[in-house]
Amino acid sequence: MDIKQIQELIKFVSRSGVNEVAIEQKDFKITIKTNQAPTVITTTVPAQAVAPQVLPSAPAVQPVAVTGGNAASAEADDSKYITIKSPMIGTFYRSSSPDKPSFVNVGDEITTGKVICIIEAMKLFNEIESEVSGRIVKVLVDNSSPVEYDQPLFLVEPM
Fold first, then answer.
1. What is the CATH number of the domain that holds 112?
2. Where is the chain membrane-spanning (predicted)?
3. Which tens digits make up the pLDDT trace of 39-93?
4. Does 82 share its domain with 147?
C-alpha cells in the first residue's frame, strides 16, 4: 500500500463514522483508529405521524368443551370470595422479619383491623390491615415479591 492509498483510507474511515479499521496483507499491516465517539442516532416520531399497521387476522379460536365442569365450578367458587388488594406499590412480606411467623396463613380467621402483611415502599414498612372479616382461602403473592397497586394479595371467604 502506498501513502496515497493510506491517506484515502484515513479519509474514508473519518467520513464513514467507523471507529477502527484494520487491514493486513502479507508484509504490511495497518490499523486506523478514530477518537470520535460512536454515533448514536435516536428519533422520536409524533403519535399522529405513525400510520396504523394492518395485521393479518388470526384464525378464529374454536371453543373447547370442558368435561366434568371443573373449570366452571372453580370460577363460580372464586366469585364468592373477597379479594384483598394491595393499597400501594412495594415489596410484599408475610411476616415482620424472616425469623417471625407469618401474620396469616391459609385457613386462618381474620377480623377487620387485623394486620395481614407488610408492604415496604421506599424503606418504609407499612402494616396492611384487613378491611373484611373471614377466613383466608388463598395467598396470591410469594413472600418478598414486588407488588403493584391494586394487585390481588389474598382471597378471603367472608363470614
1. 2.40.50.100
2. none
3. 444 444 444 444 444 444 444 444 444 444 444 444 455 678 999 999 999 999 9
4. yes
- Distance spanning both ends of the chain, measured CA to CA: 90
User: Rg of the chain's alpha carbons, rounded to an integer?
Assistant: 32
**Structural domain includes residue 29:** yes
- Copy the grid coordinates of residue 13: 474511515
Task: Answer yes or no: are the C-beta atoms of 93 and 119 closer than 8 Å.
Answer: yes
Residue range(s) defining the domain that contains residue 113: 75-158
> Residue 73: in which H helix or E strand, if any?
helix 70-79
Beta bridge partners of 22: 31
The position carrying cell 395467598 is 139
Q: Is residue 28 part of a domain?
A: yes
Distance of CA 63 to the CA centre of its chain: 30
- Total structural domains within the chain: 2
The whole-number pLDDT of residue 28 equals 75
82 lies in some domain: yes
Q: How far apart, in Å, are the Cα atoms of 14 and each of 5, 28, 144?
A: 14, 21, 53
**Identity of the residue numbered 95:** S
How far is residue 143's CA from residue 79's CA, in Å, rounded to a whole number?
Answer: 25
3 φψ region: left (φ > 0), alpha (ψ -120 to 50), beta (else) = alpha
